[in-house]
Amino acid sequence: MTCRAVLSIGGNQGDSLDLLRGAVAAAAREGILRRVSSVYATPPWGGVEQDDFLNAVLVVDHPGSPRDVLDWGFARERAAGRTREVRWGPRSLDVDVVSAEVDGTPVHSRDESLTLPHPRAAERAFVLVPWSEVEPGARLDGLALTDHLDALDPAEVAAVRRTHDRLAPEGWSR
Ligand SMILES: Nc1ncnc2c1ncn2[C@@H]1O[C@H](COP(=O)(O)OP(=O)(O)OP(=O)(O)O)[C@@H](O)[C@H]1O
Ligand SMILES: Nc1nc2c(c(=O)[nH]1)N=C(CO)CN2
């Protein structure tokens, strides 16, 4: 089984750039990293007053199931010292599985512990903007990413700002 998954990674506690790089380096080391977006500075989404986040999107080819990919993300969160406190609140590293395909077939799941596609991805410019950078032709819930972006408040989309930082380790090539 090969699971191709789109992962959203982000954080706003500690050295966020370093923590994002740690997750990407782990994916590269394990040979599952296929694409990595730029780093984006993004205002907090979800109504909790907190610092801005750094966000990015990765595409991985994992040899296991979507749940194995979720567990991979949990392991990266633990490695970054993440504890779960406030919902949508500050965190060192969050890894969400945005969408997944198994052997080329899109996965749909309503399981509370793994909902696919991620139920809030379409509302989040911090996911859609970096995802469109690495997979411009991708679709979510039957619509192109550009259609989802057009449905969002343009100010929210414009507030997702690409930085010049690089996430992929030196010399990485897929
Ligand atoms: N597609 C998914 N990706 C990641 N976690 C998921 C997904 N679907 C369900 N979950 C479940 O969501 C639970 C809470 O995840 P988490 O603490 O990262 O939420 P959050 O980041 O605060 O909010 P959000 O889910 O809106 O991003 C996890 O225990 C996980 O099992
Ligand atoms: N900009 C931004 N806002 C968020 C983020 C995130 O990664 N980026 N993650 C959250 C928890 O799911 C809540 N809000």
Tell me briefly what this model is.
The protein has 174 residues and is α+β, with helices and mostly antiparallel strands. It has one domain: Alpha-Beta Plaits. The protein is built from five helices and eleven strands; from the N terminus they run βαβββαββββαββααβ.
Model description:
- Residues 87-98 form the 7,8-dihydro-6-hydroxymethylpterin-pyrophosphokinase domain.
- Pathway: Cofactor biosynthesis; tetrahydrofolate biosynthesis; 2-amino-4-hydroxy-6-hydroxymethyl-7,8-dihydropteridine diphosphate from 7,8-dihydroneopterin triphosphate: step 4/4.
- It is an enzyme of class 2 (transferase).
- This protein is an alpha+beta fold.
- The protein has helices at residues 16-29, 66-79, 125-134, 145-151, 154-158, and strands spanning 3-11, 33-36, 40-42, 53-62, 94-102, 105-106, 109-111, 114-116, 139-140, 143-144, 161-162.
- The strands form three sheets. Strands 1, 2, 3, 4, 5, 6 and 11 form a seven-stranded antiparallel sheet that branches.
- A hairpin with a 2-residue loop joins strand 9 and strand 10.
- The mean pLDDT is 96.
- Residues 70, 84, 87-88, 94, 96-97, 113-116, 118, 120 line the site of adenosine-5'-triphosphate.
